[in-house]
Design goal:
heterodimer; A: 372 residues; alpha+beta; 5-stranded antiparallel sheet; 9 helices; elongated; B: 282 residues; alpha/beta; 7 strands; 32% helix; globular
Amino acid sequence: MTGAAERYEQAACGLLTTAPDGLITGVNQTLLTWLGYQRDDVVGKLRLSDFLTRGGRIFLETHYRPQLRLQGLVRELALSLVTADGQRLPVLLNAVTDANDLGAEIQVAILDARERRSYEQELLNARREAVETAQQSAAMARTLQQTLIPDLPPEISGLTTAVVFEPATGEVGGDFYDVFPIGRNEWAVMLGDVSGKGVGAAVVGTLVRHTIRALLTTGDSPAQSLAGLHRVLERDTPEMFCTIAVLHLTRGDSGWTVRMASGGHPPAVRIDQSGQAELVRPAGPLVGAFPNPKFEETSFEITSGDLLVLYTDGITEARRGSDQFGEERLLTALEAGVRDPESTVHRLLAAAMEFQSGDLRDDIAVLALGVP
Amino acid sequence: MTSTGLLARHHVLEQGRSDGPTLLFVHGYGCDQSMWRELVPHFTDDYRVLTYDQAGSGGAEPAAYDPARHSTLSGYADDLLAICAEAGLRDVTVVGHSVSAMIAALAHLQAPEVITRLVLVGPSPRYIDEPPYVGGFSQEDIDELLGSLSSNFLGWANAMAPAIMGVPEQPALGQELTASFCRTDPEIARQFAQVTFLSDTRRELAEVSCPTLVIQCTEDLIAPVAVGEYVRDTIAGSSYALLDNVGHCPHLSVPTETAAAIQSFLEATTDPAHADPGDQPQ
């Protein structure tokens, strides 16, 4: 055998020549050895497709041959060859031909890709597991998010309510709110924000929501409920704290009496019929943060045409560069436009989202109560 | 979506005589409209020729592919009709290859006044055998194909966006491409394969009533002769051209013979009353 012929036969890869229809016209010893065939049984007798799996044969017709015909070149095609004893041999295949000549031979080089294949399989498995885990986490976070807010929007006779609740991009946050009846024509409203984000904050948010609910429905005033909440948080979740506004509404003849306490929460805004806005800011520190907190309680009336708006700091602390949305923009957004609860909450949300170009770093919750 | 938007989305290309009768070529599972490169020049003298890329293939924009819409062949048929509508096409002869032969038939059934003739190249209304029907494949064969595609062990490992990388504008058919246009996102390839190879449009086939040509290769692993004959026998009055060719793509392997078969059919089925003024009488 000549040097060139020997080099061809013993090449470090499988070498093959075929006619355009795949009929094998030449094959080197390396490939014959891999496949476990004798030369005489292959050359002029079998096609490349005969060494492929059924799936591979389909792929040959749909991808390999067209690509060769149009471009004259196929690179790094992953296939499985079937050996004489039925084993699968994973390979990478390169092929060249003269795309301008319908009858041109095809030169094929085949690399044994067993190691690469098993490595790929491991990577694929790892990726699949990671995707599944991520999906499970996301599903759990969504479930948790549901516990922070009531299932149904509240319906209160004599009061129009509207709420928007927009979780932070990508992560469950710590904002929570609740609206529930305490007695005949007596309702409680709360809105707040637990420190931090993620599952930890959400769990505390649920605890806060249900603690306040329990305390108010057993007779605590808003300020008393905050004191009670503080004891619970101090004891159960010492490193966590929250801001919260708690309101107790009692229906009267011409509107509602509102008793409000706040634990470090942004002020509520009361807008009267004439469009005058007033901040309502009962004093009180963060709940669960510092020892011996004192919570003030404020009382006021809301009558027909009045609007009361509560929100979390996801609004006022929305950022654009070094600038914050702030109280001024809040009041501007509230005073402009139609002053019914539904339009107001959406308008405020839209303003805050636009301010930070839609990228929510923190949850946003806005709740508006209107006396019709 | 604007009309140019949709046509650009599917990389619709137009050639030939703008006042000629319209031929619309639709590629099937596999590559993209480049598949028609060898065939189309045979028609540009006399016809208005359009080609496009299916969603998820070739130069079609990634946004064109929607897993929900494209989970059935009807989704692809809707695309075809939308393109006809946007380009203002009527009285179209659709040349569909492989699964797109069925897509073309479905589109025709929805809009018979738009698609008035069909050329079905290597058609198959069902790939999996269902005795006495011979599709050519067992369920295991197709499972193996889909399994290999889903584990990336057929084809190219890199997920490549359908838009050709690094080529700012897809050149008109006939120029050389430097990228591998038969590559496609492996996930889309798997889904399209699933829709294709698990399809069954035998019932719809029986409703086709426009002039139809079936082009069948003598040795086609994907659409064997038995299937071509089934299609011929199911579509009343259809014509049948058996081409001596090994493989599934006669328009690439034997383009001259394929063109001749199509031309005979077109001339035989051109209604003189509807012929364009530019047509020469036979």
